[in-house]
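Support reply, case 0932

Customer input (verbatim):
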Amino acid sequence: MQEKGAQNVLISMAGDGAILVTADGDSHFSPAPKGTLVNSIGAGDSMVAGFITGYIESNGDYERAFKMGLCTGSASAFSENLATRPEVEALLKTI
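Our regenerated output:
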């Protein structure tokens, strides 16, 4: 994907976690936080939104952005609705 122009490649593997390959070639992997799947609709979009939020809030820290994305997607999957900030922050403490 980077050869086609993507700078950062963020891949969700659902319950198996996620991978990030950054623009500078670093890669990050994390297993998914523990929780009970309630509704996976919107979890991928939530992961992207969390990544962008984490990136902006941390002034470009890819590791922080990756963890924020992973926890936001997971929090949405563990909820009947989209994740709330407190749900995301609770998961961040577990990884």
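We compared this against your earlier run and they match. Two observations from our side: Residues 2 and 9 are 7 Å apart (CA to CA). The chain has three helices and three strands. Please reopen the case if you see a mismatch on your end.
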